[in-house]
Amino acid sequence: MSDWTFLTSHALVLSYIASTLKITARELSQAIGITERAVRKVIAELEETGYISKKREGRYIRYSVNPELPLRHHTHREIAVGDFLKSLGWKGRRRRKSGSRAHDATVAR
Predict the structure, then answer these.
(1) Under a CB-based contact definition with an 8 Å cutoff, are residues 12 and 87 in contact?
(2) How far are the Cα atoms of 1, 35, 75, 78, 109 from residue 43, in angstroms, in the given order?
(3) Which of 44, 84, 85, 89 is the most exposed place for a label (fewest CB within 10 A)?
(4) Could you name the CATH architecture of 9-108?
(5) What is the overall mean pLDDT for the chain?
(6) What is the model's pTM?
(7) Mean pLDDT value of segment 51-56
(8) Segments making up each domain of the chain, as ranges
């Protein structure tokens, strides 16, 4: 029997970033079982598509998750990524600026 999971690497990386205040790419890779290089590629793709944004703060990077964007698959576009993350136990983060829709999570580099 093959090993498979319901969640893609993108979903796992996004859920860890959303729920963990400080985690390195290496720690992420060990937690979800993919290479550090793969984690960095997923982070770059999530940023490129607007699901996360990042800002360097000292030796850490503060990630903001955009919970308003829809899931990407055409069969689930009516579901916001924030709702998906909540189904995985995400509580969300307090907003740093009033009116901002992004939720913050800090991740070490």
Answers:
(1) no
(2) 30, 13, 23, 23, 12
(3) 89
(4) Orthogonal Bundle (1.10)
(5) 85
(6) 0.81
(7) 88
(8) 9-108
